[in-house]
Structures are given as structure tokens and as C-alpha cells.
Amino acid sequence: MAVGSAKLIEIINLVANDIQENKDFLTQLDSAIGDADHGINMSKGFKAVTEKIAAMTDKDCGSILKTVGMTLVSTVGGASGPLYGTAFMRAGQAVGTKKELGFDDLLLILDAALEGIKMRGKAEKGEKTIVDALEPAVEVLKSSPVNLKLLEEAVKAAKDGVEYTKGIIAKKGRASYLGERSIGHQDPGATSCYIMLAAVHRALSEKSS
Amino acid sequence: MKKIINSPDNVVQEMLEGMVAAYPQYVRKLDGFEVIVRADAPVKGKVALVSGGGSGHEPSHAGFVGKGMLDAGVAGAVFTSPTPDQVFEAIKAVDGGAGVLLIIKNYTGDVMNFEMAGEMAEAEGIKVASVIVNDDVAVENSLYTTGRRGIAGTVFVHKIAGAKAEAGGSLEEVKAVAEKVIKNTRSMGMALTPCIVPAAGKPTFTLAEDEMEIGMGIHGEPGTKRTHIMSADELVDHLMEKILQDIPYKSGDEVAVMINGLGATPLMELFIMNRRVSQILKEKNIAVYRTFVGEFMTSIEMAGASISLLKLDDELKQLLDAQANTPAFRQL
Fold it and tell me: Most CB within 10 Å of its CB: which of A92, B30, B170, B330?
């Protein structure tokens, strides 16, 4: 895999597209245990991202990812803005001025994103958050040299993580006010994280097929 | 949905424009940002106070911008935390060289966005400190949840920390007194009807004609219980029991009382509530030093109210008595 700046923008656009398509679904999940705006806010943020990065094909990958982060921070609001914003900014720092990314960089990006989210949200696995989808995926990517097959397994692990959030009590965010009543509902943040990972996998599969 | 608006997308912007048009002697708006600052900001040598949060809680927080209270109020979208860039602009605009205190209500989004803004400001060499208000006793305080929400008691923090800053307190001193207020403030609310977020267009929850929800949050977060409607006295007894036992407030204490309307409850009903509050405090031999009845932190057009108590000492009394002159809070 060799992802240059143009391809990176293409991947992010696909992520944005999938968030857009799941806007109502994410908002519906959030209305059950949150404040019913996750899909609305994320779609607003990624719309702005698409516009912002369109002309960045000559920039390095780190700058593109940092721009995504800053745009999300300043447009999404709520808790998702700072969380996903920090994730992309940390990912950008991790790859620095590289103009081409390989599979190893994908691990670098997702690991930095995970650390950023855990730091910003003071969250650990098992609290019904984004971490429950992202951490299992990163763990899979760390288990052996990264390739498309392993990424597929990582996406599967993220999906299992989303399933897992249905059975646990929310300990972070607005959903935590519900206590036991949050059981039975899947976490909107974990879900949007899975949607993004799945989109990245799809974008990379299309290339190699 | 029946509202006096032009478009749901523009409510915050247009509200702020109307506010500035009404009170140019107190406040101005930062161009391109949903930030209201003191007309004379930055005040040289004074610690600046910045608060804010989602809109829909008017007059919080921009209504408390002025002498003796806040230096800036940052207005997010309705019920959505403002973003860090907005808070950062507010910090830069009001920093008078003595540092900036961020007064944050305890919601996950608010805390993260304000913290990021604080980091951005510190990177530019501005001294920043922050306090997190969590006065709502309806939420069980636990290490394993986000913790208690910040509601109307936040206005006591604005008032007293604002007075301390106006009197020349250092950032450390202003932060310390803000924390003292937080430690001694408890609140609890209830709702009779839901509210409608303009962008959503429909009520955030439903309550039957003969139901009320006790302990409801200011964004319609679920409360502790949904009950058949009670009389004003029964309702106040219930809220006061939860509030009083929490610190606890005890015989011989002196308190400030705030009866806060959530948007659609008339003053008539707020005074009926306060009647019972004052009776209860008298029975418990708790002296009322000052009472504030009105709308301080609303929830759009929700019908309902909250009660806040602040346990006072000499320092807090003196700061509570100090002059304040803002659009929504005047004490001359």
C-alpha cells in the first residue's frame, strides 16, 4: 500500500460520505442515550472537512490530518468535536511531513488517535465510548505486520466492540446519567468510529482490487 | 413548533445581535464569533472571568457579562458546547494581563472544549485557570460517572468570583473563592413540560398532563423520578429535603437562596415556591441572607424551576453584597 496525499484525501472523503449516509442512524442512536445530535454534528463537521482539504493534494499527509482535526474541533462541538479532533491532530503529528503512507503508518495513525481520545476523554475501555471500538482494532493491528487482511480483522474487532457497548453501563458523557438504563443501547461514538474504520478499509480494498 | 424565530440555523447569532443592540453600554460582540464581552474589555490588571455553554439558557451566560461578574460569555449552538476556537477568542479578548478564570459547567462536552481552549491560550502565554461547577444533587455523585451537572447555582459562582476579581484578587484567589462557592452550593430542579430545540423542531421528551419530572436537567436530561403532579408545598418539600441533606446545611447556617424559573414558569409560581422554601429554612433555623427569584438559567420554554442554596461565610457575604452591573443581574 502506498497512499499519497491525493489518495489520503480520497479516503477521508469516503469517510465523510459514510458519516453523511449514517447521519440519521447516528442521531437516532444518540437520542436513546444522549442528546440526539451525534449524526447532525458529525455530518456538519465532515462536510466542512471535505471542503477544507479539497485543495490540499500538494500538502504532506501530516498537515492534511491536522487540518481534518482542527476543522472537526471548530465545527462539531459537543464532546465528539474535541475527541475526534484530538484524534486526527495526534494522527497528523504521528506521521509528520510524510508524503506517502504505508500500512505501518496506519497503525501509527490509529494508535496516536486512540491515545489522543483516551487523554482528552479521560476514558478507558469498558466505559461505553469510542475507545470500545478503537482499542480492539488497534490491538489487532499491533498483533502482526499490518496488511489489508489484518485491517479487515481490525474492522471486525471494532464491530464486535460496538456490539459489546450494548451490554455495558455508560460511565462517560451524558449517557452516564442514565446508569443502568443505558444498557441495551449501542454507543453512538463507538458506532461512528466503526463506520470510519470500515470506510478506510473499503477505500484501501478498492485500490488493490 | 411555534416560536418567534426567523430560521432555526440563525437563532444564536440573531439573539446575540439583539442583545448587543439592547445593552451597548454593557456589552459588545466579537466580530465573527458567538462571544459577548464587556464593553470595556479587556480590563487592565483585573483577572478576567470567562463562562459559557450551549445556548438556550438565557440570560446565562452572556446576560451576566458586565462589571462585577463575567468578562465574556461564549454561546454555543442550542444545548451544544461552544467550540475551543470560540472560547479561545473570548480568552484573548478579555485577558487584561492578570490571567483568566474559566467557569465551566460539568458536562463532558463543555469540559473538553474549554480545556482545549485553555491549552491554546496557555500556549500563547496567557495564564489560565478553571473551575467546574457541579451543583445538581439530582445526579448521584460517583467516581464512575461524569458526575453532577452544573445548573443554576453557577450564577452564584459568576457573582462571587466576579466580585473577587473586581476587588483586585489574583487568579489564585479568584479561583479559590470560586471553588469555595462550588463546595457550598447545591441545587435541584423539576419540570412540568418539555422544551423544543429549534433545530430539532419537536419536544425532547414528553410528560403527560398530570405528570412532573423531579430532578430533570436543564437540557431535559432524565431526573430522579417521574411522579403525579404535586402541590407547590409538597414539591418544594421534596426538593429541599434532597438539597438540605446533601452538604448538609444545618441549624445556625446562613444561606443565599435562588429560585430559578426554567423559561415558562411565571414569577407567581416562583414566589409560591419561595414562600415554602423560607418556611422550611425558618423551621430548620437556617437564616436567609439574600434571596434571588427570577430567571437565571433557563431551558428554552420548559415549565419548571430549580432551587439553589449557597452556604455563606463572612467572605462570601461580602462578595455577594458587592456591586454588580450586568444586563441580567444588577445590584447597586
Answer: A92
